[in-house]
């Protein structure tokens, strides 16, 4: 009875304030685990140095893959989320006449018409083929002047987030190879006028991504659907080689539930965490670049911009990026995936 009571007590989060850090102790799989909930540093200070030093204690550049840990975590993720089968809407899993329920608007749905159905990819783009190496490229300022372009491009499969720029010198640091890139509808609204007017600039800017999969969250919110479909029609009308695909909202709901079970509490998962999660299901070895939630570099503490291409701050309060990073850092320390924080030697793959 006493042991059960102690286990119940440990199941509750015990949050301790340590300077600028929050250290959380949880009970998981019959043993205690500790990880850091991180707060971003906004200027160089003793607090910032202490925070970054604490992070680097759990980070090793001489990373070693731990096969048992990877297989166990991947099995848990797959059993809860079924990324291979459910991550992407296809003509096979979503026939004409079926309903798709929105991820965030639980009482709203859309019935699949032949017109909508025609924009679905026929079969799941990943099937059951496991990629050997995957690079998930975030857009963090840590990639600026990193010389990681060739290293990123050497991965078998490269995933990028939110239509990032890859030219005008950026290719040296982030690469150009793209197998999948996400497209947030807010970008289409802000940059391309919701595709209600001239559409050629959108298609022209897609050329840098070649024939990559172009992934839209068309059914996360009802207001995302029409603009995502317009993007798909535009790609078809202009005969662009890009291949539009859509997140399955059921998969996103399952993924949110999974990460909550791991201790993450936020309104919505970031695109970066979603893509890292998908990569963990479809790739044997996952490498993360551009994932760093602080405004100072981990090694020389130089100031970093929010993105490698601009310093525009994220408006939304939906995400808790430092908390996500803490969980990814734990996976790094367990040899499940690798986070790259260091610059890459020029010319090295």
List the helices and strands and how they pair.
Blueprint lengths: L1 H10 L2 E5 L2 E8 L2 E7 L8 H12 L9 H15 L1 H4 L12 E3 L7 E3 L2 H4 L13 E7 L11 H5 L3 E4 L10 H4 L5 E3 L2 H8 L7 H7 L6 E4 L5 H16 L5 E4 L2 H13 L9 H12 E7 L31 H13 L4 E3 L9
Parallel strand pairs: 6-7, 6-11, 7-8, 8-9, 9-10, 11-12
Antiparallel strand pairs: 1-2, 2-3, 4-5
Membrane topology: Single-pass type II membrane protein
Main location: Golgi
Family: Belongs to the glycosyltransferase 29 family.
Please tell me about this protein's structure.
With 349 residues, the chain is an alpha/beta fold. The chain has one domain (67-339): sialyltransferase cstii, chain A. It has 13 helices and twelve strands. The protein has helices at 2-11, 46-57, 67-81, 83-86, 114-117, 149-153, 171-174, 185-192, 200-206, 222-237, 249-261, 271-282, 321-333, and strands at 14-18, 21-28, 31-37, 99-101, 109-111, 131-137, 157-160, 180-182, 213-216, 243-246, 283-289, 338-340. It has a seven-stranded parallel β-sheet with strand order 10-9-8-7-6-11-12, sandwiched between helices. A three-stranded antiparallel β-sheet has the order 1-2-3. A two-stranded antiparallel ribbon has the order 4-5. β11 (283-289), α13 and β12 (338-340) form a beta-alpha-beta unit. Mean pLDDT is 86; it is low at 1-44.
């Amino acid at each position: 009875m006493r042991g059960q009571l102690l286990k119940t007590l440990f199941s509750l989060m015990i949050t301790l304030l340590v300077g600028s850090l929050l250290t959380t102790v949880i009970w998981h799989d019959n043993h205690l685990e500790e990880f850091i909930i991180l707060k971003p540093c906004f200027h160089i200070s003793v607090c910032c140095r202490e925070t970054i030093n604490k992070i680097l204690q759990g980070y090793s550049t001489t990373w070693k893959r731990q096969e048992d840990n990877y297989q166990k975590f991947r099995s848990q993720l797959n059993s809860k989320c079924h990324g291979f089968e459910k991550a992407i809407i296809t003509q096979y899993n979503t026939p004409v006449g079926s309903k798709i329920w929105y991820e965030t608007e639980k009482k709203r749905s859309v019935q699949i018409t032949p017109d909508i159905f025609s924009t679905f990819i026929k079969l799941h783009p990943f099937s059951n083929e496991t990629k050997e190496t995957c690079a998930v490229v975030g857009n963090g300022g840590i990639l600026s002047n990193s010389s990681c372009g060739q290293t990123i491009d050497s991965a078998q499969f490269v995933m990028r987030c939110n239509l990032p720029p890859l030219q005008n010198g950026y290719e040296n640091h982030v690469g150009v190879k793209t197998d999948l890139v996400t497209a947030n509808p807010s970008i289409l609204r802000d940059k391309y006028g919701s595709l209600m007017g001239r559409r050629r600039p959108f298609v022209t800017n897609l050329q840098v991504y070649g024939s990559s999969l172009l992934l839209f969250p068309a059914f996360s919110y009802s207001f995302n659907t029409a603009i995502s479909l317009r993007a798909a029609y535009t790609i078809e009308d202009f005969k662009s080689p890009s291949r539009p695909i859509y997140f399955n909202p059921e998969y996103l709901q399952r993924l949110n539930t999974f990460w909550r079970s791991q201790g993450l509490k936020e309104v919505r998962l970031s695109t970066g965490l979603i893509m890292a999660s998908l990569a963990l299901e479809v790739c044997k070895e996952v490498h993360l670049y551009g994932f760093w939630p602080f405004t100072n570099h981990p090694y020389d503490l130089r100031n970093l911009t929010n993105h490698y291409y601009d310093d525009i701050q994220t408006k939304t309060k939906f995400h808790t990026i430092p908390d996500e990073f803490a969980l990814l850092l734990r996976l790094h320390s367990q040899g499940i995936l690798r986070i790259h924080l260091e610059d890459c030697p020029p010319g090295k793959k």
